[in-house]
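Handout for the seminar on molecular recognition.
Each group receives one record of this type.
Step one: identify the two inputs.
Step two: read the structure output and locate the region that could contact adenosine-5'-diphosphate.
Step three: write two sentences on what you found, then compare them with the reference statements printed after the record.
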Amino acid sequence: MTDSIITTTGLTKTFRDTHAVDALDLTINSGELFGLVGPDGAGKTTTLRLLAGLLTLSDGEATVTGYDLRKESESIKKKIGYMAQQFSLYAELTVLENLRFFAEINDVPKKEMAERTENLLQFARLTEFTNRRAGHLSGGMQKKLALACTLIHEPKILLLDEPTTGVDPISRREFWDILTNLHLEGTTTIVSTPYMDEADRCSRVGLIYEGKLVICDSPRKIKAELPGEMVEFLTSEWQKAKTLVENLPGVLEAQTYGEALHLLVEDGDKGLKQITKALTKNGIKFRGARVAPVRMEEAFISLIQRLEN
Ligand SMILES: Nc1ncnc2c1ncn2[C@@H]1O[C@H](COP(=O)(O)OP(=O)(O)O)[C@@H](O)[C@H]1O
Ligand SMILES: [Mg+2]
């Protein structure tokens, strides 16, 4: 027995000669908070739009909540809440009017309206702003309102396309607290994100690259896939430092994040000593040398670097 709620087999979408989604096999279990990550153009939006029944499949099969995506997409639409990256709220309508509008187009029974809107307003911490026009909300509040509108018909599955892109860090965290609550309540969510700290909050993450699912596992396991250990140095001469140390024996890979030079090495302690010595010898000033935990960001960049080579 499996409690999968979404299953795709060879899911494919082709636009002329672009394989936007290329033979995707994906199983999402009921109640998962699943993160979809990948570089721009990887196929995240197309995947979500296919699952939302907004695009026709070029090939393959998919079932969503037991319905066949090819034949029963209308039944599927009732079960899902899809939030597009450019979610269109009505700027001239108030917070409450937006909620009512989405309730109406989604056939929410009139008698349930009051309770649902009140709950959602509370949930999204928008109660104080009920009568403010959507166009006058901050970016973060607009995203929360968009999510509330997506939830108004109580969908079993949420498909959220980069819901926090361009949002300030505090609103981003608030938004994710809401997603975590929904997760705890049993909602199944697929969320695409360019932010690796967000990927870390998912129960499982799929990395999509050129339309293909490259890895799909829990954040812990994805990080454990990375060979060796990570050492970190902070230096304003990071370019010089990188060139100097990336080919030393025992150094598997070098990544830079601003002034931070992250080196994947066979052995953390040994690597730290060896690189410290090399930098010192060559007069490169640095600080904050340490063996550092691997983050999702390094794991994914490493995977993508290996794919591109
Ligand atoms: N409507 C479309 N017509 C033609 N090409 C498209 C269309 N939508 C997406 N693509 C192409 O499909 C690929 C995947 O796009 P998309 O799913 O938007 O990626 P992502 O969301 O990961 O950035 C890209 O190469 C993109 O240019
Ligand atoms: Mg996209």
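Reference statements: The longest helix spans residues 169-185. The first strand starts at residue 4 and ends at 15.
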